[in-house]
Amino acid sequence: MSSVCRLGHRQCSGSARRDGNRWLRASLPLEPRGAYHLSGEARHVWEHSIVEMDRTRWSITFRTPSEKGRSILRAASLQP
User: Per DSSP, what are the bridge partners of residue 8?
Assistant: First the structure.
């Protein structure tokens, strides 16, 4: 939260899982104390992570469970 970092995205393209060479990659700068919202393909299709850095960076993540996740929580009586 207190330093600039990069949000990395990657998506498997073609035979990447077999030969390890076919990842589509993108990254975006994240400003200190900034906020962002992932939705659609950026959240569900692309893998996303904070790119490793030399300084400590704290992140706060809020997540909304999928319908499957909500049904599991209801079954476990963890959500009304």
Answer: 27, 49
How far apart are alpha carbons 10 and 58 in whole angstroms? 22
Work out how many domains the chain is built from and give that number: 1
- The domain in which residue 20 lies consists of 5-75
Choose among 44, 39, 43, 46: nearest CA to 9: 46
59 within 8 A of 50, measured Cβ to Cβ: yes
Which pLDDT does position 54 carry in this prediction? 85
3-state secondary structure of 44: helix
Distance between CA atoms of residues 1 and 16, nearest Å: 33
Assigned domain for 80 exists: no
pTM of the full predicted structure?
0.59
Section 37-52 average pLDDT: 85
